[in-house]
C-alpha cells in the first residue's frame, strides 16, 4: 500500500506571516493537531503544531521567576501571555525541518516514522509542493479497518 | 602400555656394594616405599625423586622436583635419555641399566610392541622441577618462588635481618609504627644514610628483604599525611630504585611479593606457616587491620599450595590417561579450594568480637591505601597480581581478559618473575577440561564442575571475594582517604561509586569458562517413607535419591537444591484459566532456555516448550511480586493493582490471578497466542532450586551414592481479606518431593539436583569440641549427617517433634550405641519422651514439651561454654532457642554479650528456613518516619528490605560481613545493598534476617493526586506519589550520610598506629578528621544543598503553595555564602591542614588543633541529624494526611524543607563561633574548600592501582 492510496488530499494550511490568533482559529475549526505551513509562493515550509502553540504560552523557569516567582504568578503569566502572543506572527513557532514523505513511498515506512519520531501527521511533499498529509488515523483506517 | 622390564645395577657409593634389580617401567626412584617405586634409602634422595620410563623406545629419566637433583654422568638434568652406558646418580646411589637376559645395549620388550610415545610428565611439573633446582643452585629465589612444598611462596623463610652494613634500614623499619602518631616519620626517613645497593654490598639473597623494607619506607613517606608530599627523599628513592631495578622492575614499585608473600616471619620457626604463628616482617602502622589483612592474605596464598600440586598431578594424569588419578587430583583441587575459601579466607573477620578482628574503618584509612603506587605508571600489588589466580585461571582455561579487571590482570602478570610466567604458561599446555569432556564420565564431569563452582560460584572463592570486597569497598568509599578516592569520589555521596567497582568484579567472573555439560546432578527416588500426623493432615517425608556415579561430594551440613515441578492439578487449573489445551508451543526466552537445560531429558537447544510442560516447570505458586507487577502492567486491572499495593500477591496463585483478570475483561489467551513479549515465558520465571538440608553423611573423600532428605509438608490457607480469598494452598517443592517419594509411577524419574555448600554449618575441626544441637520438625535433617560423621565424642541433640513417630531414629540409635551421643526429645502432641535402652530409643511416659522448655529444665551451661552450638529449624524456632540459651546464660553473664561472643567465636551455627508466615496485612505496620529514627547511632537500628522492617540490634553483631555495612544501611531502605550481594537469592540468609522482622512499611494512598511543579526544564506534571518518593529518597540519603559520617569520625577513637593509646587523638588521626570535614562539605553537604534539597524545595513549594516565592531557597543559600562565618568554616580545612603540616615539619602541635577537629566532627554529625529531623516532619505530614496532604498540610511541608535550610545556616554560624572561641581565625585568603585541588586518583582501596590501566 502506498502513501497516495490513503493520504488526505486537503490538509489544513496556513501561510507564513499569519498571526497566532489565526492559527488558533484554524486549529479549533479543523480539529487537527498540525497545520501545514506554506509560503507566499505556495511552497511547503513546515508545520505548526498545537503543542508548540501551548508551549509558547507556558512560562519557563526564568519566566516564572521574573513574573514574581510564585506558582500563582506562573498560572497568571500563562493567561497574560495569550493576549501577548495572539498578535505575533506564527513564524518562530513553525517547525521547518519537517520529516516528509512522497506519494509513492510505502505506507509501512510512514508507520515507522510516525511511531519512532512521535509524530501524529506527516506531510506528503513533492518538489516543495504539498500534496496532502498522512496521519495515524489514516494509517489505521487504511490498514486495520478493512482487515 | 606394554610391560617393559630392565635390569638395573645399583651401587651404594658409601658402602661400595652393588646389587641388581629387575624393574618394571615406568618406575619412580625415591626414598619412599610403595608399589612402582625403587626405594633408595638416603636422606639426600627425595621421597619421589625421579621417574624412569620408556619414551619412543628409549629409557628416559625425569626429575620430579627433587631437593638435590638428578644427575646423568654428573650433569644435573630435568629430563634426559639414559643410555646403557650412562651413569645415573641420585644422592649416594649410582644406577646403570641393561636389558634382562640380552646384550647390554638393547632393550627388550616383554609383552606387546611399545605404544606411540607421549610425554607423561606435564610441562608444569617440568617447570616446577626446574625452578626448584635453579633456585637451589643459585642460592636465592629471585627468579620466582616455585616449589612443590611451598608453592608460590618462598621456600626459605624471609630473612630476619639485612647484612650488618645495612642495619640502619632494619632499625628504622622496626620503629615505623612509633613514628606515625606524632607525624615524625618523614624526618626519620629523610635522615637515613644513603646505603650501597650494589651486589657486593647487598647480596642477592638479601634483595627481597631490602625491597620490602624500602617499598614500605616509600609508601609510608608518601601516605603519612592525607596530602601527599611532592617527592620521595633521595635516601629512600635512590636505593629503592636500585633494588627494584635489580629485581627486574622497570619502575620502583611495591609488588605482591613485597607486600604479602615476603612480608611475614614465623613466631616459632619450627611451627606452621599459619596466622597464629606469624607476624609481619615489616609492620608499617602496627595496627590490627594491617596484621590481619596482610597475614591472612599470605596464609591464603600458602593454603593454595596443595591446589597447585594437585593441578600438576591432574595434568600428569591426563597425559597418562589415568581417569582414576585425574579424579583423585581434581578432588584434591576441590578440597584445597574449599579449605582456603571456607577456613582461611574467613579469618578476615570484621566482627569486633572476633579473634582476628579486622576493623574496616582503620583498614580503609591506612592499609587500604598502602598498595596505591607511589610512582606514576608503576604496577600495583592488587589482588589481580596474585600469582595463584593466574595459575588456577590457566588450569581452568580462562580465555577472556577483556574486562577492566581482566586487562589489569594481564598487565600485572607481565611483571611476574620468570618461574611464575613459565608455570602459568605451562599450565595452559595440558587440557584437563578436554579430557573430562571427552571421557564422558559423569563422575569426572561432576567433579570438574564442582571445582569450577568452588572457584567461581556464588559461594565459591570469587563469589565470596566479591561479597567481602563489596563490604570493604562500601566502607572504604564512605570513609576512605582522599588519595584513594580522589577523582572517582569527587562525585557526590549518592553516586554509589562502589557499586560500579562491584560491577567490574562481577564482569570478571563471567570471563571464566562455563561448566562442562550441564551443571546439575540427576537423582532417582529410591526410597520414600511418609509419616502422616495423627491429626491435622500434616506429614513428614523421608526420601532417598540415587546419585551414584556422578561425582557428588558433600559434607555434613551441606544443602541440596531441588528443582521442583508443579503437580498435574495445578497445571490443569492454570491451563483452564488460560483457556488453553496445553499443546500450544511457547517460544522460550534466554532465561527459560538456561533453565530447561537443567531438566532431565531436554537437550541444550530446546527453544520452544508445549504450554503444559512450561507450566510444569514454571514458578506459578505462590504469585511472585515481579510477575504480579508485569501482569498489572499488561492488564491495567484495578483489582490486581489493589492486591499489589497491599503486597498481598503472595496470597494468590497464577491461575486465580488469571481468573481475576479474565473477570475484569482481560483476554488471557494473549499470554500464549499473542505477541512473544507478552508470552508466559517472558512473564513467568522458571522454578529455581529449593534448598533442603542433606540428612546423611558419606565417608570423607568418597562420592555419595544416595542423598537423604527430610521434608515437612507445607500446606496453609490463604487469607480471607479485602485483597484475597481463603483457599487451600500447597508448598510446591514439598509436595513435589512427596509425589516422587511415594508414587511408584515416578520410580524412574530423574530429579535435577545441586549441592549447595554450607560452610557455616560444619563439624568443628577439633573433634574434641562438644556439640550442642537444636532442631525442630524437618530441621532435624542435617543432624542425621553431623551425628553420623561424628566420632565418639560428647554431642547432645535436642529435637522437637509432634510425635515420636515423626522421627527416623536409626542414625541416632547407632550414634548413642557408639557412645558420647545423647538425644533429648520434646514432643508437642504426645505425652511421651524417648529414652535410650542400650540399643534403641524407645518411648516412655512423659509430658508434652517444646525444646525451649527442655533447655530451661536442663540448664546446659557447662556444655554451652565450650560446645559448638547448632540450630536448625524455622525462624521462630531459632529465635525461641536463642532466647532460651540467653536465659541459661543470664545468671552467669550478660546474655546478649554471651550470644554475640558465640557468634564471634564461630560457635553458633544457624540453618534457618522460613515457611509460610502470614501475609503483609498482618502484624505491625510501620512508617518511614519511624524507620528514620533508627539509624546506625540509634539504640535499636532498623533496616527496611523489600517493604519489611527489621530490628538489626542483634543482627549487627551476627553479620558475617561485620557491623559497618549493616549500620550503613540502617534507618533507611537497604534493599539495593542487600540485593547487590545476592542475599535475597540465598534463602538461608533471607531466613536468618527473618528472625529480626518487626513489621511492614505501610504504603500510603495518594489516590492519583497530581500537581504542576517548576523544574529546570520549565513547568512539569508531578504525581503526589512521585513527590512523596522524592521526599523519602532525600531523607534516606541524609540518614545514609549520617551513618557514613559517624563511622568516619569513629576513626578518631580507633587503634590506628601500634603503640599509641586508641583514645588519644594523635596528630596523625586528627588530620583524618580535617580531611573528613573537607569531604563532608564537598561530597556530602554541597551536593545535598545544591541538588537534592533545592530540588525538594522547588517541587514541594510548587506543588503545595501558590503564593510562596520559589527563589527563597536560592536566596537563603546565597545569603549564607555571604556571611563571615560561612567563609571561616569553608576555609578552616585548609587552615588546619597548615597546622598539621607544621607538626609534620617538627613543630609543636597547637593546642587548638585537637579540640577544633573534635568540634568539626561533632557539628557535622549534628547537622545531618538536624536535617533528618526537619525532613521527618514533612514525612509525618504525608503519613497523617496522605492524599489530602496538600490541602491539610501544604504549609507544613514547605516549612519542613525550610527548616532543613535553617539548620544549615545555624550550623555555619555555630561552627564559626566555636572555632573563634578556640582561637582559630581563618585568614580570608584561604581557598574555599570546594576549590582546593584534589590529587589525581591513585587507585582503588584494597585494589592498589586504578582499574582502567
Automatic annotation (TrEMBL), chain A:
<protein>
    <submittedName>
        <fullName>CBS domain-containing protein</fullName>
    </submittedName>
</protein>
<feature type="domain" description="CBS">
    <location>
        <begin position="7"/>
        <end position="63"/>
    </location>
</feature>
<dbReference type="InterPro" id="IPR046342">
    <property type="entry name" value="CBS_dom_sf"/>
</dbReference>
<keyword id="KW-0129">CBS domain</keyword>
<dbReference type="InterPro" id="IPR051257">
    <property type="entry name" value="Diverse_CBS-Domain"/>
</dbReference>
<feature type="domain" description="CBS">
    <location>
        <begin position="94"/>
        <end position="147"/>
    </location>
</feature>
<dbReference type="InterPro" id="IPR000644">
    <property type="entry name" value="CBS_dom"/>
</dbReference>
<dbReference type="Pfam" id="PF00571">
    <property type="entry name" value="CBS"/>
</dbReference>
Automatic annotation (TrEMBL), chain B:
<dbReference type="GO" id="GO:0046872">
    <property type="term" value="F:metal ion binding"/>
</dbReference>
<dbReference type="Pfam" id="PF00173">
    <property type="entry name" value="Cyt-b5"/>
</dbReference>
<dbReference type="InterPro" id="IPR036400">
    <property type="entry name" value="Cyt_B5-like_heme/steroid_sf"/>
</dbReference>
<feature type="domain" description="FAD-binding FR-type">
    <location>
        <begin position="523"/>
        <end position="764"/>
    </location>
</feature>
<keyword id="KW-0408">Iron</keyword>
<dbReference type="InterPro" id="IPR017927">
    <property type="entry name" value="FAD-bd_FR_type"/>
</dbReference>
<dbReference type="Pfam" id="PF01231">
    <property type="entry name" value="IDO"/>
</dbReference>
<keyword id="KW-0479">Metal-binding</keyword>
<protein>
    <submittedName>
        <fullName>Sulfite reductase (NADPH) flavoprotein alpha-component</fullName>
    </submittedName>
</protein>
<dbReference type="InterPro" id="IPR039261">
    <property type="entry name" value="FNR_nucleotide-bd"/>
</dbReference>
<dbReference type="InterPro" id="IPR000253">
    <property type="entry name" value="FHA_dom"/>
</dbReference>
<keyword id="KW-0597">Phosphoprotein</keyword>
<dbReference type="InterPro" id="IPR017938">
    <property type="entry name" value="Riboflavin_synthase-like_b-brl"/>
</dbReference>
<feature type="domain" description="FHA">
    <location>
        <begin position="27"/>
        <end position="77"/>
    </location>
</feature>
<dbReference type="Pfam" id="PF00498">
    <property type="entry name" value="FHA"/>
</dbReference>
<feature type="domain" description="Cytochrome b5 heme-binding">
    <location>
        <begin position="923"/>
        <end position="1002"/>
    </location>
</feature>
<dbReference type="GO" id="GO:0019441">
    <property type="term" value="P:L-tryptophan catabolic process to kynurenine"/>
</dbReference>
<dbReference type="InterPro" id="IPR008984">
    <property type="entry name" value="SMAD_FHA_dom_sf"/>
</dbReference>
<dbReference type="InterPro" id="IPR001199">
    <property type="entry name" value="Cyt_B5-like_heme/steroid-bd"/>
</dbReference>
<dbReference type="GO" id="GO:0020037">
    <property type="term" value="F:heme binding"/>
</dbReference>
<dbReference type="InterPro" id="IPR001709">
    <property type="entry name" value="Flavoprot_Pyr_Nucl_cyt_Rdtase"/>
</dbReference>
<dbReference type="InterPro" id="IPR037217">
    <property type="entry name" value="Trp/Indoleamine_2_3_dOase-like"/>
</dbReference>
